Amino acid sequence: MIDLLISKTQESNIGNIISMEMDSENSQFIFPNSREEHKNLIKDVNIEHLLLKSENNKIIGFVILAGLKDKNRNIEFRRIIISEKGKGYGRLAIIKLKLYCFEKLNCHRLWLDVLETNERARHLYQTEGFKDEGKLRECVLIDDDFENLIIMSILENEYKNTTDNNDYS
């Protein structure tokens, strides 16, 4: 069974993060941040910028969570990038992040937006309990085409009602 370690991102990791964002398998689904933007995110008290590492301590991805200080206890799952696809790291990261957000950060609603064309990610989020909330029609311009974003979320009671939410603590 694979394991996944999660730790705070350091400024020295930004080069790896930018490389992951620029990879063609990832760049088509995100709006990459600059080095300075990542540096500011790492310092922001309302943001968690987290590294994902394999069991041998190799960086295999990162996550950005936003809204940690939100009075309504809504946390945005702003970005996840996994460099080693097809090995289960993405699913394991989402399982562990749900646990972290709901159990440690006292989150009530964990939400995200995803490009409608990113079927792989949408399927993963759905199988991990995220529900579609709506569509932002043609709200982002990508390569001269307007694309739709799907808003998805999972609520605290939905998380607590899942049977496998503590399998990876």
What does this structure look like?
By secondary structure, the chain is of the alpha+beta class. It has one domain (4-161): Gcn5-related N-acetyltransferase (GNAT) (Aminopeptidase, 3-Layer(aba) Sandwich), CATH 3.40.630. It has helices at 14-22, 24-27, 35-43, 89-104, 119-127, 156-161; strands at residues 4-8, 47-54, 59-66, 74-82, 109-115, 131-142, 145-155. A 7-stranded mixed beta sheet has the order 1-2-3-4-5-7-6, sandwiched between helices. Residues 165-169 have low confidence and may be disordered.
What features would you highlight for this structure?
single chain, Aminopeptidase, alpha+beta, 7 strands, 7-stranded mixed beta sheet, globular
What string, H for helix and E for strand, traces the elements in order?
A: EHHHEEEHEHEEH
Described by strand count, sense and barrel closure, the largest sheet is: 7 strands, mixed
Strand content: 35-45%
Q: How many distinct beta strands? A: 7
> What CATH architecture would you give?
3-Layer(aba) Sandwich
| Domains (count) | 1
Oligomer: single chain
- Under CATH, the homologous superfamily reads Gcn5-related N-acetyltransferase (GNAT)
What structural class should be given to the helix and strand makeup?
alpha+beta
